[in-house]
Amino acid sequence: PALMLDVRLEVLEDSPFAVKSGSWVHLYLGARELLAKVVLMDENDLSAGRSGFAQLRLMEPVTAKVGDRFVIRFYSPVLTIGGGQVLDAAPLKHRRHKPKVLEQFETKESGSPLERLELAIMERPESFPSLSELVIRAGLDPVRVRNDVNLLAQKGLVVPLTKDILIHRKEFDRLKARIKSLLDDWHAKKPFSPGMSIEELRGRLASGTGQSAIDALFSLLEKEKFIVREQANIRLSGFKPQVNEAENEMIDKLDRIYQNFGHSPQVTSTVEPPKTADEGRRRNAALAALVRRGQLMRLDEAYYIHKSHYDQAWQKFKEMAEGGSVVITSQFRDALDTSRRVAVSLLEHFDKAGLTKPMGEGRTLR
Prior knowledge:
Layout: E1 2-11, E2 19-20, E3 24-29, E4 32-40, E5 45-46, E6 51-62, E7 69-74, E8 80-88, H1 99-110, H2 113-123, H3 131-138, H4 145-154, E9 158-160, E10 166-168, H5 169-189, E11 196-197, H6 198-205, H7 211-223, E12 227-230, E13 233-236, H8 245-261, H9 277-292, E14 296-298, E15 304-306, H10 307-320, E16 327-328, H11 329-336, H12 340-352, E17 356-359, E18 362-365
């Protein structure tokens, strides 16, 4: 349902009235009759026999599709004065006498399917519409649209964030520049920080509806080596957090602690629990530095484990899974002499790394 329609409006040759921009008319669309305000895009009025682009702004929502025909009647007296065709059934609000807007109307009316798809992606950059939404809104052929997406991607005009979410190259470049600006500022002000939290950066870039698309954007930029994700933080790939003397002491201390934990690390929040916000920052920076140096592995929100013990655990799993054997969680736990929670965290990390795959109640080598 929408409160606006982009249309090609035609006035009957024998209409006794001209249609003025801003005038109210009775709109007949499908089985609906409702009031609409006519906003002409490039004219002040349309006299008998003329046509032009217009946006109909409605008193109540209506559902329509591209290509639907409609009739308009004068507000009072109620005489039929014209009609037309829907070009966009859920448009944005347009300003009049704008060359760019008129170009968009022309594309909607007579553009190729490829041009209409690109326009539909470009018009709502921050809403990250799905492919199915684009098909409906632009009146496209759902059978050929996937091929058109591939063509636009090959031309560099759109960037697929996921299989079904697309972003125009201009918006991709804008968001990339925005991320660089935010992180440059963060790194300049907080040189000891491992980066801005993913949650904060995501919130700065999109509302709730677009945040899953932003996560896909992060993955793409990480693949391009533009950013680095570390723990729950993001930094620019060329930035390395500075480490002060106090943090070096904390790094050495945590390295020894995690070596001593063996295969039974404690929950992260209980390891050297900070008494002040500054101590918390220093501890988190030290953990990030250890991960960066390859001395610690972050299994999940709850656990880190020393890399030497992680490698031992992986070696143990490979021995147990030799010959295609299925390794049950409890067997792996007993082999490492650890808790079930730690064993599960290790196994899930193996899964995410593409080393193992679930098989019934256990796992096998991938």
